[in-house]
Amino acid sequence: MNILFVCTGNTCRSPMAAALMNKIAMERDLDVRIESAGIFAHEGDNATTEAVLAMRKYGIDLLGHHAQPINEELLQKSDLILTMTAAHKLLFAEAAPDKVYTLAEYAGLDEDIEDPFGGDVEEYEACAEQIYQALLKVADRLEQERGNG
User: Fold this and answer.
1) Tens digits of residue pLDDT in 71-84
2) Where in the numbering of this chain does the Phosphotyrosine protein phosphatase I domain appear (predicted)?
């Protein structure tokens, strides 16, 4: 399964989500390929310093991350598109209605993943933990679907 995480700039939330999902997938032996992109991403931008620092708690190095803008090819090859907010989801609802969800929605939660951009490391750490907890539920769902498939 190809999973695409989408946020605004692809320097904070979506790269943290992609990295955390890769970690969870390896721990649970899930057959997934993970990418991230941003609606207004500038090709090649690095992850923010705060995102890099927040990921260290999870043993993840984001220093090699380079932002990419979302494009038609990414949308087409993705089996599941998880956005950080309902506003992001609305942008793709028509193009990919059967495979786009907010991360929280797919995890069975309610809240959007708010953008920590411009905040301090503690805000990024709180955001990362919110993403991580949602991704644990996503992994549970993927495991259930694998068992039923």
Assistant:
1) 999 999 999 999 99
2) 1-141
